[in-house]
Amino acid sequence: MPVIARFYGIIIKMYFIRNEHRVAHFYAVFGIDSLEMIEGDLPGRAQLLVKDRAKFYQKELLEMWNSRKFMQLPGLE
Question: Is pTM beyond 0.85 here?
Answer without folding.
Answer: no
